[in-house]
# Entry
Amino acid sequence: MADQKAILSVRTVWWEEDAQNVAVCLLDQSLLPQQVSYLKLRHEQEIAAAITSLKVRGAPAIGVTAAFGIALAAHRLWQERGEALTLSEAQEHLTRLLLRKISMLACKWACTAHN
# Structure
């Protein structure tokens, strides 16, 4: 029963705000099932690298992680420039994140499934 509760408490991907700003936290799926380890990523390039290196697996998780990557880029650029991300900039970041993944069509589907 305790193992079952531990399995149910494993989180996949989430947004976190702390004293060092914001981060996307995610389960490093490349270490499963031997180890449950989490990554705390603070830049969209780290998100792209996590997708490329298969630390994130499965279309839904990839789509959510890519969306968080865009939000992270928007937040970073807003802090740097004091203005919001434009639609074309958001599309550029999304394209960059999508092109990092071998299974680009699965990621594209996951990112647009709820539109």
User: Anything to note?
Assistant: The helical segments are 2-8, 44-52, 59-81, 87-99, 104-112. The first strand starts at residue 13 and ends at 18. Residues 59-81 form the longest helix (23 residues). The chain has one domain: 2-112.
